[in-house]
Design goal:
The complex is a heterodimer. By secondary structure, chain A is mainly alpha-helical. Chain A is built from 7 helices and 3 strands; from the N terminus they run H-H-H-E-E-E-H-H-H-H. Chain A has one domain: Sufe protein. Chain: A (Alpha-Beta Complex). The longest helix of chain A is centred in the C-terminal third of the chain and has 22 residues. Helices cover 27% and strands 12% of the residues of chain B. Chain B is built from 10 helices and 10 strands. Classes of the chains: A mainly alpha, B alpha/beta.
Chain lengths: 150, 298
């Protein structure tokens, strides 16, 4: 599968690249504030959500794939973890309504291309990589796509 | 210039009660000259969402670490950082942060490597301060630049490297990670990206005392009696022991280092900051798996 960044995710990345230094952090904080609450069907059923173990903060994700192979991503993370919320929010905004193919073609190293690594450290960016990996795996499971061989 | 201590009864039983302050004391002392409040969090953006008025942010990932080598700043760089933040060598520093002060104790430990004299922890940290309804602000108070001297970092007293830790096998060691990390079962999670270490388990002889057992629900430290039960009775430490504490990258073990040093009065505690991300990937270092210090064979 050819790697390519879905359009909304690509726009978000450009948004980060247009800013410098602390403004990038402020931009990430805006995403954190924009993370929507879970719809009731998940808010009332936490067992459906998958914990992202790569993040030290409790962040949970869930992916839906509809009959037209469109993806919806849901995520929840505590207010006390704005960086994690920001990452989750970027992926929710950037991948929701994408096709299965678009999500799966997103490069695994997308998080490290946002220009945040030096500002917030590689270790923290790795948490976002964990989220993306889990989103892609859930999309594969729900869409019954055979995973690429290693 | 010494800022008075918080003489709360609550801290009196600890070995070094002067190393803790309550929220009430801190709120009353926020404008005391010579006192600087430092917030250090796991989350790099948390300070921006609101902090104690006047508090200075110190981020361990991006500010206390060297950008290239896996090490801390050297004395010159630390002096530049402190001067830019308006911190002076004789200031009293009160650290606080999220997650029951993990990162606050971590930052405090790094400051101690540079020998900063008067460092204290806000008992209960950020969460308790907010839960108690004390003031927070998103305004950043500008501070005049200071002249912090370049002091050589002392890596021999409070810090242990891999070789030191290896030589320490057979002497008291505390693994402060979760029981699953200690036993080694956490490397067996199929299809999940595993971060950090190539092997699972613990250093032979290390007792498992997860760091969070030292704190109450509200993030404050447990009483001296409770801590003695945990570390002396259960983990088998004896007063006077030389101890090495470790975790995954040295942050949780800074918390235990603080408890052992300042609350229980052990003088010879070193933090192995390489911790499991180094040990668990190093070639031919001894590792045991299982729930006992000596591993499954016990």
């Amino acid at each position: 599968m050819t790697e390519s960044v879905p359009p909304v995710l690509s726009d978000i990345r450009e948004g980060f690249h247009e800013l410098s230094g602390n403004d990038r952090l402020t931009f990430l904080l805006e995403f954190a504030n924009e993370l929507p609450d879970l719809p009731a069907r998940y808010a009332d059923h936490p067992e459906l959500l998958e914990r992202v173990e790569e993040c030290q903060s409790p962040v949970f994700i869930f992916v839906e794939v509809d009959a037209d192979a469109r993806v919806q991503v849901f995520a929840t993370a505590p207010r006390e973890a704005p960086t994690t919320r920001g990452f989750a929010s970027i992926l929710v905004q950037g991948l929701s309504s994408c096709s299965v193919e678009e999500v799966l073609s997103t490069p695994d190293d997308f998080p490290s291309t946002l220009g945040l690594t030096e500002l917030i450290s590689p270790l923290r960016v790795r948490g976002m990589s964990g989220m993306l990996a889990r989103i892609k795996r859930q999309v594969r499971e729900r869409a019954l796509v055979v995973p690429p061989s290693e | 210039m010494t800022v008075t201590f918080d003489n709360s009864e609550h801290f009196a039983a600890y070995a070094h009660p002067e190393s803790l302050v309550t929220g009430a004391w801190l709120e009353a002392n926020l404008s005391t000259p010579g006192l600087v409040v430092i917030e250090s969090d796991e989350d790099v953006l948390l300070y921006e969402t609101g902090h104690i008025p006047g508090a200075v942010k110190v981020d361990w990932h991006t500010e206390l670490n060297d950008a290239i080598v896996r090490d801390y700043l050297d004395g010159e760089a630390f002096a530049r950082l402190m001067s830019a933040k308006g911190i002076s060598r004789d200031d009293t520093l009160v650290f606080y942060g999220d997650k029951s002060n993990w990162w606050a104790t971590y930052a405090l430990w790094v400051f101690k490597l540079f020998g900063h004299a008067d460092v204290r922890i806000l008992d209960g940290g950020r969460d308790k301060w907010i839960a108690d309804g004390r003031p927070v602000t998103t305004d950043v108070t500008p501070r005049a630049e200071s002249q912090y001297p370049a002091v050589e970092r002392d890596d021999s007293t409070l810090r242990a490297f891999l070789a030191d830790t290896r030589a320490h096998i057979g002497k008291p060691m505390i693994d402060v990670r979760s029981p699953e990390e200690y036993s080694g079962e956490r490397t067996h999670m199929p299809s999940y990206p595993e971060e950090g270490a190539l092997r699972g388990g613990h250093i032979p002889g290390a007792a498992n005392v997860p760091w969070a057992r030292a704190v109450n629900e509200d993030g404050t430290f447990k009483s001296r009696d409770q801590l003695e039960d945990l570390y002396l009775r259960d983990a088998g430490l004896t007063p006077g022991d030389d101890i090495i504490a470790y975790c995954r990258i040295g942050e949780r073990s800074s918390h235990s280092w603080f408890v052992l040093t300042y609350l229980l009065g052990f003088d010879g505690v070193r933090n192995y900051d390489g911790s499991w991300t180094e040990w668990g990937s190093a070639v031919r270092v001894p590792i045991v798996k299982g729930v006992t210090p000596t591993g499954n064979a016990a």
